[in-house]
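[audit] Reproducing an earlier prediction to check determinism. Same input, same settings, fresh worker. If the C-alpha cells differ from the archived copy the diff job will pick it up downstream; this log only records the rerun itself.
[audit] input (96 residues):
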Amino acid sequence: LHFDVDCFYAQREEIRDPSLKEKPIGITQKYLVVTTNYKARELGVQKMTNIDEALKQCPELILLPGEDLTPYRDASKSIYKTLARFGTAAERLGMD
C-alpha cells in the first residue's frame, strides 16, 4: 500500500488551528514557501516558491513559520504509530 501525506506541514497546521482550513496557507522556511495547502494551490501558489513571489500570486496567503520541525516530527510519529497498528511496514520517503 502507498500512503501519500500530501502538503503534510500545511495539514498539520490546519489540524492545530481549524480556522485555517478554508484559507490559503503557506509554510515558510527561510525565504521560501516550502509547502502550501490545497486552497493556496488553487490560487496559484506552489511549494518551493519565493515568499515575495507567493505573496504576489496570492496577497491573502497566510504565512506560517515552519523552521521548528518538532510539531511535524511529532505528527509523523503519530502517522507511523497508526500504520504500525495494522502491521504495515512503513518506509519513509519524504514529507512536506
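[audit] rerun output stored. Observation attached for the diff report: The chain is about 40% helix and 15% strand.
[audit] end
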